[in-house]
């Protein structure tokens, strides 16, 4: 058995393996060259320095009074917004905001949709 394994290892070692250097010198193209549509717009916005082009990150709530509500940017007439009313709360209170009408959450904070240019 040992002789058989030794002969197989010797045969494998004798095989000449050649690689073309051109095959391994190619680098992947830039993802921006292959992207299209909304993905390309997102990559261009990130390249320009806007790491949150769709405003998907969490906003910190401000005072949220009726006179100065928390401003939520949107490129549309309506947006679904979630409010974590208490610090230790384990669920999100969801509500729809519509352009031009401020809305009050159950916790008492006010939110208002403001217009933002689309990506």
From TrEMBL:
Keyword check for Zinc: yes
Pfam family, one: COX5B
Domain of life (superkingdom): Eukaryota
GO molecular function: metal ion binding
UniProt keywords, alphabetically: Metal-binding, Zinc
A Gene Ontology cellular-component term: mitochondrial envelope
Entry keyword annotation includes GTP-binding: no
PROSITE patterns recorded: COX5B_2
Binding residues for Zn(2+): 83, 85, 105, 107
Gene Ontology terms: biological process: mitochondrial electron transport, cytochrome c to oxygen
Coiled-coil residue spans: none
InterPro entries in alphabetical order: Cyt_c_oxidase_su5b, Cyt_c_oxidase_su5b_sf
SUPFAM superfamilies in the record: Rubredoxin-like
Protein name listed in UniProt: Cytochrome c oxidase subunit Vb/COX4
Source organism: Simulium nigrimanum
């Amino acid at each position: 058995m040992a002789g058989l394994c030794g002969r197989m290892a010797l045969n494998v070692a004798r095989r000449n393996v050649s690689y073309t250097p051109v095959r391994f010198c190619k680098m992947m193209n830039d993802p921006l060259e292959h992207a299209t549509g909304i993905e390309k717009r997102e990559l261009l916005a990130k390249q320009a320095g806007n790491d949150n082009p769709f405003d998907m990150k969490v906003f910190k709530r401000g005072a949220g009074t009726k006179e100065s509500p928390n401003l939520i940017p949107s490129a549309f007439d309506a947006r679904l917004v979630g409010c974590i009313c208490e610090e230790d709360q384990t669920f999100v209170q969801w509500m729809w905001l519509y352009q031009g009408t401020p809305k009050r959450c159950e916790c008492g904070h006010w939110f208002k949709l403001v217009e933002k240019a689309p990506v």
